[in-house]
Design goal:
Length: about 240
């Protein structure tokens, strides 16, 4: 199981008491499948991604990423796990204004110690995969909002993560461009066998996801849709 959360509870300090952001959450995401999470603002969706990304340690429960039980890892091991196994796409593409699309990806993977030429080749391959083969040398201000979000997604894949966590990637896009980004995420999940979790407010495309779940006041309810594996996934 590439991503596995069991009985995860997370609270934040809230005045004199605690606010329960995640309440006994269960989540299993096999490689090559995409789970969409919907739910109202403030229900705990981003907190769930932060826990899955090992950026936040829950009060209780198990978080297993790429077969590693994160409770057993020290801070440095967790940082390495994040770098090597987890790709994160936030709502706003945080691109560096002075870098080209290809360079955004190359700096991301710089820490991996791979040779520059190999990083460049991988960056161009990923930009091609997200439909931006001809935009590799553009800087952010020369790209549309949808194109910037594609660079953001490609960047998250630079280190070949086994887990891809995506928080509301279409909120700044119009309906058509948002749909294209969701399509792209489904395709990348299949092709790269990532365990993908997608937080979205866009209910229009949920039928294209493998599984859906709804967050309500920190409780995750799994959809009624059957979770049969998709046809095109290679054996993990
Ligand atoms: P969503 O992404 O669904 O909008 P969040 O996970 O961001 O929800 O937030 C869930 C709840 O936890 C909200 O009530 C929010 O105000 C609270 N919260 C989120 N982050 C923090 C934090 N760092 N400290 C305190 N409360 C937080
Ligand atoms: Mg959020």
């Amino acid at each position: 199981m590439t991503l596995f959360l069991h009985d995860v509870t997370l609270t934040y300090p809230d005045g004199d008491g605690r606010l329960t952001a995640l309440d006994a959450v269960e989540l299993e995401v096999p490689a090559g499948t995409l789970t969409a999470i919907v739910g109202p603002s403030g229900s705990g969706k981003s907190s769930l991604l932060a826990v899955a990304a090992t950026l936040v340690t829950p009060d209780s429960g198990r978080v297993v990423v790429a077969d590693r039980d994160t409770a057993r890892l020290g801070a440095a091991e967790k940082a390495a796990l994040r770098r090597e196994e987890i790709g994160i796409v936030f709502q706003q593409p945080n691109l560096l204004a002075s870098l080209t699309a290809a360079e955004q990806l190359q700096v991301m993977a710089h820490l991996s110690g791979r040779p520059a030429r190999q990083l460049r080749r991988r960056a161009l391959e990923l930009l091609d995969a997200v439909g931006l083969a001809d935009k590799a040398d553009r800087r952010p201000h020369q790209l549309s909002g949808g194109q910037r979000q594609r660079v953001n997604i490609a960047r998250a894949l630079m280190n070949e993560p086994s887990v891809l966590l995506v928080d509301e990637p279409t909120s700044a896009l119009d309906h058509e461009r948002g749909a294209a980004v969701l399509d792209l995420l489904v395709t990348l999940t299949r092709e790269r066998s990532t365990a993908t979790v997608l937080v979205t407010h866009d209910h229009a495309h949920l039928d294209r996801m493998d599984r859906t779940a709804t967050m309500t006041d920190g409780r995750l309810t799994h959809g009624a849709r059957p979770a049969e594996p998709p046809a095109a996934v290679p054996a993990a």
